[in-house]
């Protein structure tokens, strides 16, 4: 062999390695009991064990991703899809044909249909409804009685989503029914996910009956809304018209079931997430009066004596920072899951095909490696001169990539307006019976927030 014939061997990329197994598993149960007992603390502590960690959940291995960079890589990679136990139980209750659970070409087609309703330039048209609902929400605090933040936050979220995206005169009465149905459905759905005791939920117990009635009413309401719009012959430029006129890949109208499931798949994530965030914003106004005062002063300087309007939102920078900081510490969507479609690699770790992956925006957004004084409520960390210190993907409450929430601008506008309208008018304090500790459900929210409003 001549010297010339020796080919240089290219340096081999290191073989992906198996992620470490998280500590503290119990034989038979693995880490499941820890996840059920203290899901937020458990997921947050995993960051000390590695960027990717294996969990044993019963007989199953689940991969937990803990670093901001890798959660971003995961959300952006085509190697993962929406699937897994969380989504399966959502599908069985809410329908299989909506955008939130679809994958591949169907998902891309559905996103194309709904996207125009959420585009930045579509949002100003919703301004008058958002302004009116934010002002009415603040006005409902005037009774002097303790204000039940749970039901009222649900009410404002459902009313804004229903009135903006589905329109129609009928929405007042329907929005109230939707509120009741969705609140009950979400409570029951979380229970069914955490304790998958199938046959028990079919027993004729009062809680099961309430859940079944609420779920049936939710589906009936959606059918009524669709039927009524069709019967009216009206085609306003809104999301419901876009869904009714949508075509599949062959150019045929999409089926009735898909239209129904799409409406459900938009209304359900749209109400619970916003409602939970509104509750945290009210909690923040009680717990941080100095920021409530700053919001009030900012709104006053922008709007003077008139009510706050949609057009003011972009000038309310401190109010916006309060909303963002509240979402950092209490992100409504606190856990997300994916499934690997193929054997792949994440941050040098091997992920087998079919593996279930889990990550927690709550854990990532509280990581002391990303945030100084990580647990402190500090809206000023979002000032332009400080925001550059926040690592990429360390703050993604709406996620990134092809499953990113379509409603980020829509949500931020309404959350900012509601916060501004309340803080401008009222000083809030919690009253006896209020419990603002974190309740873990499909979203995170305070257990039972009751406030009293006194005029400023
Ligand atoms: C504070 C408010 C909100 C937050 C924090 C939030 C958060 C999220 C997150 C994190 C996802 C991605 C889920 C994943 O990656 O698996 C998502 C998806 C989604 N959100 Fe939101 N959301 C909010 C409000 C809304 C509203 C108001 C609507 C509709 C009216 C909405 C509709 C949707 C839909 C349809 C999806 C599924 C998108 C897809 O899979 O392509 N969300 N949301």
Summarize the structure.
The chain has helices at about 30-35, 40-45, 70-75, 85-95, 105-120, 125-140, 150-165, 170-195, 205-230, 240-245, 255-285, 290-305, 315-330, 360-365, 385, 410-425; strands at about 50-55, 60-65, 80, 145-150, 335-340, 345, 350, 355-360, 425-430, 435-440, 445-450, 450-455. It is an alpha+beta fold.
Topology:
Elements: H1 32-37, H2 39-45, E1 52-57, E2 60-65, H3 68-76, E3 80-81, H4 85-94, H5 104-118, H6 127-139, E4 147-148, H7 149-165, H8 171-194, H9 206-232, H10 239-245, H11 256-287, H12 289-303, H13 317-329, E5 336-340, E6 344-346, E7 349-351, E8 356-359, H14 361-365, H15 384-387, H16 408-425, E9 426-430, E10 435-440, E11 444-448, E12 450-455
Parallel strand pairs: 2-8
Antiparallel strand pairs: 1-2, 3-5, 4-12, 5-8, 6-7, 9-12, 10-11
Cα gyration radius (Å): 23 Å
The helix fraction, in percent, is 40-55%
Mean pLDDT: 90
Strand order of the largest sheet: 1-2-8-5-3
**What characteristic shape results from the CA principal axes?**
globular
Largest sheet, strands/sense/barrel: 5 strands, mixed
Low-confidence spans: 1-7
Instruction: Say how many strands there are.
Output: 12
Q: What is the strand content?
A: 5-15%
**Which small molecules are bound?**
protoporphyrin IX containing FE
Beginning-to-end CA distance, first to last residue: 91 Å
Q: Give the number of helices.
A: 16
Label the structural class.
Answer: alpha+beta
Order of helices and strands: HHEEHEHHHEHHHHHHHEEEEHHHEEEE
């Amino acid at each position: 062999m001549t010297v010339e014939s020796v080919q240089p061997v290219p340096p081999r990329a290191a073989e992906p390695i198996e992620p470490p197994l998280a500590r503290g598993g119990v034989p038979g149960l693995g880490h499941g009991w820890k996840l059920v007992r203290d899901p937020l603390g458990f997921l947050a502590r995993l960051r000390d064990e590695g960027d990717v960690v294996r969990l044993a959940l019963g007989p199953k291995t689940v991969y937990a991703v803990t670093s901001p960079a890798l959660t971003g890589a995961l959300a952006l990679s085509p190697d993962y899809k929406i699937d897994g136990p969380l989504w399966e139980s959502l599908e069985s209750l809410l329908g299989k044909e909506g955008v939130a659970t679809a994958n591949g070409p169907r998902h891309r087609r559905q996103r194309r249909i709904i996207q125009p309703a959420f585009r930045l330039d579509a949002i100003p048209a919703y301004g008058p409804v958002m302004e009116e609902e934010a002002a009415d929400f603040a006005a409902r605090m005037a009774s002097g009685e303790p204000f039940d933040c749970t039901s009222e936050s649900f009410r404002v979220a459902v009313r804004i989503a229903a009135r903006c995206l589905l329109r129609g005169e009928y929405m007042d009465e329907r929005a109230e029914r939707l509120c009741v149905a969705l609140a009950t459905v979400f409570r029951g759905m979380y229970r069914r996910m955490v304790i998958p005791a199938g046959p028990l939920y079919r027993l004729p117990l009062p809680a099961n009956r309430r859940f079944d009635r609420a779920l049936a009413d939710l589906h009936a309401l959606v059918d009524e809304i669709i039927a009524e719009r069709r019967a009216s012959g009206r085609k306003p430029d809104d999301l419901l018209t876009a869904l009714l006129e949508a075509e599949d890949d062959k150019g045929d109208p999409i089926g009735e079931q898909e239209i129904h499931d799409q409406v459900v798949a938009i209304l359900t994530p749209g109400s619970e997430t916003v409602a939970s965030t509104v509750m945290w914003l009210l909690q923040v106004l009680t717990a941080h009066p100095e920021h409530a005062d700053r919001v009030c002063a900012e709104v006053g300087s922008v709007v003077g004596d008139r009510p706050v309007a949609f057009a003011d939102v972009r000038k309310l920078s401190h109010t916006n920072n309060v909303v963002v900081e509240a979402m950092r510490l209490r992100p409504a969507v606190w856990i997300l899951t994916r499934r690997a479609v193929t054997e792949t690699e994440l941050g040098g770790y091997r992920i087998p095909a079919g593996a279930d992956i889990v990550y927690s925006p709550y854990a990532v957004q509280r990581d002391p490696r990303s945030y100084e004084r990580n647990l402190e409520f500090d809206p000023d960390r979002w000032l332009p001169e400080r925001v550059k210190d926040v690592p990429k993907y360390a703050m993604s409450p709406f996620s990134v990539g092809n499953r990113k929430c379509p409603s980020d601008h829509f949500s931020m506008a309404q959350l900012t307006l509601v916060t501004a309208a309340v803080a401008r008018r009222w000083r809030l304090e919690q009253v006896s019976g209020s419990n603002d500790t974190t309740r873990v459900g499909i979203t995170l929210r305070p257990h039972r927030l009751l406030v009293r409003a006194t005029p400023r």
